Amino acid sequence: MIKIYHNPRCSKSRQGLEILENSGEEFEVIKYLDTIPFKEELTEIINLLNITPIQLIRKNEKIWKEEFKGKEMSDDEIIQAMLDNPKLIERPIVINGNKATIGRPPENISEII
Prior knowledge:
The chain is of the alpha+beta class. Helices cover 35% and strands 16% of the residues. The chain has helices spanning 11-23, 39-49, 62-67, 75-84; strands at residues 2-6, 27-31, 93-96, 99-102. A four-stranded mixed sheet has the order 2-1-3-4, with helices on both faces. α1 links the parallel β1 and β2 (27-31). The protein is globular, with a radius of gyration of 14 Å. The model has no long low-confidence stretch (mean pLDDT 97).
């Protein structure tokens, strides 16, 4: 089943959800700010996206700028920063089997459903 890691307060995330709703496919909505992924889950998402952890960070978030920007951090430390501060996770993320994409732009979602 398709999963979307969704933040209802984000316009791009809402657009991504709309694409899934219009697709006719079944999907699960994970409000990742309420249900924070486990470390293993977040690591698997990063692997499916075929990116490094830093590429999943929202670098314009205030908390990133104030606490992490410019620091030398390992991949594990970056993942832990996202787990401790889920607002740092780029959104929306859509997973369909062994394919995943970040819905920025939201049209990226259409390529994997």
